[in-house]
Amino acid sequence: MSWLFTKPLMKEITTRWMDNDVYGHVNNVTYYSYFDSIANNYLIEHAGFDIQTSPIIGYIVSSACNYYSSIAFPDKIFGAFRVNRIGKSSVEYGVAIFNALMAL
């Protein structure tokens, strides 16, 4: 898993018409939905996490989001996921959203 500290996992995300707000770009709160999907996708597909039977429950105790440019439906976007730090009882993830041009 050490490669995740330096090389993020990239996953395509499909924007939806309903993601746009009245200003014509993806609503800020929708980014957190993308973050949640990226992190859970990694845990399920690469870490063997079973959301139906696992006794482990994850809590988000801290989060922040910096916006550098807007995206809008029907943009092609990618989510990047990496592990920043593994502690004794916690894991810190790094998640980012890129449009198709930025992801290249």
From TrEMBL:
Signal peptide: none annotated. The keyword Hydrolase applies. InterPro entries: 4-hydroxybenzoyl-CoA_TE, HotDog_dom_sf, Thioestr_dom. CDD domains: 4HBT. Residues 23-99 form the Thioesterase domain. Keywords: Hydrolase. Belongs to the 4-hydroxybenzoyl-CoA thioesterase family. This is Thioesterase domain-containing protein. It comes from Colwellia marinimaniae.
